[in-house]
Amino acid sequence: RWVLSLECKGSRNFMSALRRAVEVDFRDKGKHKSQGLYLLTTGIPDQETHTISAYVAEACTGFDLQLHVCLFSGTGGTDSPGIVPPRYASPAETASALKGIVQAAGGRFHWFGEAGIFESDDITSIISEIEKAKSYSQKCAFLVESLKQRS
């Protein structure tokens, strides 16, 4: 229920938010094998991608920290009160910039919208595993058939 009471506010100063999240003393940091940050966004950060990527790569090497990004591409405008309009970039440019940041952080990228999932590292991995399983299954079936023919 508390989520329904939240209001959109703040800025798109990605570096400021990232620094705040990374440079705080994570509670019980030594007890966990890894830490993860999730960026839920609708647009491209205000800072240059290479600057953010360099900072993220450096911040993530100190301990096992991964930055994951969920990009939501809505069809509506930014006429809603309290929503800060992003700096302009096409959806493809936005996705490309965020994927570069995620790769520097060793995280995962997910891009979805009202029409469904456009791209997801998790789904890509699952499809790859399914294709491998299908290939192994076909090889096994071929081997079984060849053994039957020899008998």
What does this molecule look like?
The chain is α/β, with parallel strands linked by helices and 151 residues long. Helices cover 45% and strands 17% of the residues. A 4-stranded mixed sheet has the order 1-2-3-4. α2 runs parallel beside α3.
List the helices and strands and how they pair.
Elements: H1 14-23, E1 35-41, H2 49-61, E2 65-73, H3 91-105, E3 109-113, E4 116-120, H4 121-150
Parallel strand pairs: 1-2, 2-3
Antiparallel strand pairs: 3-4
Protein name: VWA3A protein
Radius of gyration: 21 Å
Strand order of the largest sheet: 1-2-3-4
What portion of residues belong to β-strands?
Answer: 15-25%
DSSP E strands, number: 4
Number of structurally distinct domains = 1
Report the helical percentage: 40-55%
Low-confidence stretches: 76-84
| Main sheet attributes: strand count, strand direction, barrel closure | 4 strands, mixed
Number of helices: 4
- The geometry reads as elongated
End-to-end Cα distance: 67 Å
Tell me the series of helices and strands, N- to C-terminal: HEHEHEEH
Judged by helices, strands and strand pairing, the structural class is alpha/beta
Average pLDDT: 80
